[in-house]
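Morning run. Coffee first, then this:
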Amino acid sequence: MQTAILNILTIIHFLAMAGLAVYGVHRIWMIRCRHNCSQAPPDALDFSIITMPTVTVQIPLYNEPRVAARIIDAVAVFAWPDDKLEIQVLDDSDDETRNITEERAAYWAAIGKNIRVIRRNRRTGYKAGALAAGLKKASGDFIAVFDSDFVPDPDFLKNTLPYFTEEDIGMVQARWGFLNTNYSWLTRLQALLLSAHFGIEHAVRCRRGLFFNFNGTAGVWRKTAIESAGGWQSDTVTEDLDLSYRAQIDGWRFVYLHHVEVPSELPVTLADFRCQQERWSKGAIQTARKLLPRIMSASLPLSVKVEAAAHLLANYCWMFGFLATLTLYPALINRIGIGVYQVLWIDLPLFLFTGGSVLLFYLMHGLSSGLKTSLIALPLLPVASIGLAPFFSIAVLKGMFQKGGLFVRTPKSGVLGNSTKRAVVIAEGGNACMCLLTNLILFVYMLMPVFFSLARGTWPALPFLCLFPAGFLLMVACDLKESLAGAYGR
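And here it is:
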């Protein structure tokens, strides 16, 4: 019986590693495509000789007192004719943010800006519901959306609207920049991950005619594209990804502008980052459940279908990684008869291939895009991924079986540059005690392969095996630090 269980766990281990290997192959393919992909932007219209269109700018807000005024002020000074610009502050807040939005809207309205605050009696549908409510009252032919942690340049509309060159272009997405990259190792790592998402994934998918997504902010939609695709819907917690795929299935084309950057604020605590990524992981799987059958049955090129599946299902890698971690020790025990050194000839190269391809993906991007300070945090990527995998795996499971759900917002701190002076803000969905307990248990469990290796004197295996407890120890240290900072202040 025990042997049978160990055999099953060993099979699960290698199936999980195989899943990660497939993801690694996809990363290598992305790198190759990006190398052959032109960065030249598509042709743009000359707005100096045509009539500028009417634009509605939507700012969805919920309890963001530290950044609400900043985003309203940034949008209000857009270099666009006042009679062609409408600003909607979609404020669902129930805290002091309400007073801030009213004050800033009144200020800009007094000097001739077409701006108003739109409130709802209930926060139904969360962000998707707010955007849908605003769309019904929008007068613009184009809809620009900005989350509260973004600070667009005054020329944003002049830099993006000209790329709606054809009637079937439904959305133009700008690249995210980052205001607080050097705040900590966590923000450096996030900047590297997100910049690669834009600089490699978006660039490759756009240039090759594959589906890619509006990122929820720093982009402009053609209003008719939103409406014809079914509008904003809240049956997933990633309404931006959902609408993006529905619109492209219906034939709308998207444009990605790498040369147009919109600065934004990265989450500065592990709890904030974890909650953000849990929502993105859950929502991507919900979108896959909802739309993959429709994509596969549509009259689309095979390359579009394959890449859509790879994109929407990529978060299953968190489950593969967590399963590989949990089954590492049983797999070692089960193959003790062939010798640990012999095992290393299989496990270590496989791990280096799966993890190494991902590290290469970000290393090459970091070197080519000038993110050398962010590369300092790159060695922490495999360690942090191990520690985060259990929580993101749970999010993936929720996405497999739940429809919609609570939209857990990512708190904004108003952090700029390297400043460390701020109030500690913990995401709504954060549960520090549960996270600490989970990571402590997993830390102790993952020490067992290390002790196993020590007992057998297989010293070359130790650096590899120590990555696993190190991942959970890193999470414990960060959660403890943030809990103490929240309780006693910095």
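The first helix runs from residue 2 to 35. Good start to the day.
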